[in-house]
Each structure stands twice: as C-alpha cells, then as structure tokens.
Write a structure and sequence with these properties.
It is built from twelve helices and four strands; from the N terminus they run H-H-H-H-H-H-H-H-H-E-E-E-E-H-H-H. With 303 residues, it is of the alpha+beta class. Strands 1-2-3-4 form a four-stranded mixed beta sheet.
Length: 303
C-alpha cells in the first residue's frame, strides 16, 4: 500500500498529480459558461459519440470548453467507468489530445513523434552498440526483439523496439505495460489481471510487432478497443496517467519517467509522479539521468 492510499481522492490527487500540469486546478468556469451550459455541451458530446460522422473540430472545441467540468469530476474521484460513460471522447485519441494539451500545455502525439524523430535513432544506436556489451541479459532481450521484428521497418517499429528495450534496460516488467491477447479478441473477452489498475496497452496478437490492433485498459476497464497504431496506443497509455490522475507504478518508474522527460518533454524541476518509493523524493530518477548522460557522452564520442 502506498502512502497516498489512505487519504481521500481529492487530497491524494493533489499530492502527486499536479506534477507536470499547468491547469490542474481551475477555480472558475470559462468566460460565458454556466453549470447548465457545461451540462448541455456534455450531453451534446455524448450524442456525437453515437454518430459515425461527428465533426472532429466541433468535438475538439466542445472538449476544450468542458475541460473545467472534466477536471472537477476527476478531482472528485469519479471512477473510470463513470468517466467513460459521461465523456466517451475523453478516451478517444481526439479527446485525449485536447484534455492533455489543456492540462499540460503539451501536444501529446505531436510532441512524441517530433522527439522520436530527434532522439529515437540515437537511443536505438546506443542500445544496439553500447548496452549489448555491458549486460548479457540485455543482449538476449535485444536478440529476441530483432527476431520478432524480422524485416519490418519504419517509425512505428522503431518505437516498439525502443519501448521494449527501455523496459529491458531498466529491468522493468513488460507485463506492467502490456497485456497480450488473441488477435481476434473482443473487448468483452479481455480478462485483466487483478493487479492491472494502471493504464495497460492490450496487444491483440502474439507480439507488439505482429499486432495490427491495440486496446487501452485503465483501472481494468477497456476504455478504447480499436487502436490501429502502436504509437497512438502508447501516447494514449501515457496520457491516461495525467488525464485521470494516476501515479506511475514503481515497477515502471524509470521507463515512464524516461518517456516523460525524453519523448513527451515534461520536465518538472521538483516532485515525482511515482507512487511512494525510497527514491521518489529525488527530482530526477537517477537511473534516467544516468541514461541521458550516457547517451550524450556516446553521441559526443560518436561524432
């Protein structure tokens, strides 16, 4: 049990989940808005979620205008099932982009893909040339991923390799981030492990490489059952930690903070989003800091 488990939801969120946020606590409704107009917009969003041809720009605008009410309900400790029913677009890529941008000031997928372009190849080069010589277990993991990847190439495949290698580098649990099911599995058939309360990417297939469909589970609820791209699934998994006030599990602390700092450009100078551990009082996870420094050193020598 973590330090924050015994306090009320509002107080618990305030302890850790303001981390990396610029608009976590809104005191006032947007100009011109009333509780009634917020409710009307929320009902309109629910109605649009039933349509196949909803205007994406209108959805984004309505999500932005109702951000105040969304945050209020998270702070009240509303559960995932309630949020999913009341705000169906929140767990849609479109809606989560809006909420995450309002909350953190950062474009979720846009920032990630830009940073992958800038840093992804460097990280893979470092893990493929330096890390393999330092650690036999890491070499075995890298070899396994190469076989699974086969001849596949492209940005999405690089991202899969990058995330799996980060988990191996930090010796963190793959099953804390991914759950594997049959490729034909339906959302109602997914059996989530009792421990899987944090956001989990459900991989429909034997591996991240072979899968052509992903789902997202939050608090053991499938909140999105058809995500075609691994990059989208990863961004939504990461975004969920912020959008619904979930702290990083200790078994993924280093991998998530590395993604946060290097690829999502969230670099708070104090605090932590990790559930209470012996190191959570430090401003930057020392293992993440070491990797960043080693990468810089490697690039400098590589020139």
């Amino acid at each position: 049990m973590s330090l924050t488990d015994k306090v009320p939801p509002e107080q618990r969120a305030a302890i850790q989940d303001t981390y990396g946020c610029i608009k976590w606590d809104l005191k006032f409704l947007p100009l011109g808005e009333t509780p009634e107009s917020q409710q009307e917009k929320k009902e309109k969003l629910k109605m649009m979620a039933q349509q196949t041809n909803a205007n994406p720009e209108e959805v984004k605008l309505l999500m932005k205008l109702t951000f105040y009410t969304q945050r209020k309900q998270v702070k009240q400790g509303k559960n995932i099932k309630y949020l999913l029913e009341e705000w169906p677009f929140w767990f849609d890529e479109l809606g989560m982009e809006v909420h995450f941008k309002e909350l953190t000031g950062i474009g979720l997928k846009e920032t990630f893909t830009r940073n992958v372009d800038l840093k992804g190849k460097r990280l893979l080069n470092y893990t493929n040339t330096v890390c393999v010589n330092k650690n036999k277990k890491f070499l075995q993991a890298l070899t396994k991923f190469k076989v699974m990847r086969g001849e596949l190439s492209g940005c999405s495949e690089d991202v899969k390799e990058m995330v799996l290698l980060l988990l191996s580098y930090f010796d963190e649990k793959e099953d804390a981030m991914f759950c594997y099911v049959e490729d034909t599995c339906l959302a109602g058939e997914v059996q989530m492990d009792q421990g899987h309360l944090t956001p989990i990417i459900v991989v429909c297939g034997r591996s991240c490489y072979s899968s052509r469909r992903f789902m997202l589970s939050v608090d053991r609820n499938i909140v999105q059952d058809n995500i075609p791209s691994f990059v989208s699934a990863l961004c939504m998994m990461f975004g969920s930690y912020y959008c619904v006030n979930i702290h990083y599990p200790s078994e993924l602390a280093s991998t998530l903070e590395c993604l946060q700092r290097c690829f999502f450009s969230i670099n708070p100078d104090k605090g932590s989003k990790v559930e209470k551990t012996n190191t959570s009082c430090l401003h930057v996870n020392p293992r993440v800091l070491t990797l960043i420094q080693d990468l810089s050193d490697h690039e400098w020598r590589d020139v």
